[in-house]
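REQUEST FORM: STRUCTURE PREDICTION
Request ID: SP-0412
Submitted by: Lab K.M.
Chain count: 1
Length (residues): 144
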Amino acid sequence: MQIIRVVLAYILSLLIAPLAAIGGVLLLAQAGRRLTRWRNSDGSPGWMVSMPVGGAGWQVGSATARAVAAFGAMRLIFWILGVPPTPYAAGFLLLILVAWDVYRLRFMQRPTLAAPESALAVARFKVGAGFIASVLAAIVFLRV
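STATUS: Completed
RESULT:
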């Protein structure tokens, strides 16, 4: 029975933690009034949300909110299922979050996109801020 709980904790947490990360950033952006909701001009039900890139303060805050939300969701699932947190789970989630930032940076560096140098500098800073915030959240995840 213990092995089933462990496997279930890993599967659920690795599915829910990225969703919690997105939710954490969106909640922070909504609280800071940074979201813009766009609707179709013809009145059809389609819509999208956009958010400005922001400066260093926003990048640190959003990276922290993302890490806290993701590791918090993972820790909650482990606690509900009675499974102790492991460095493997923390490491895998850390890898997901860092890969997410690196992918965004690589996407912005594509020749077809031609992002301005200031946007690339912010994206590079976001990779570092995201890594530091994720490592700190992983340490708290393992200690609490």
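NOTES: The helical segments are 2-31, 56-80, 87-108, 117-143.
Reviewed by: T.R.
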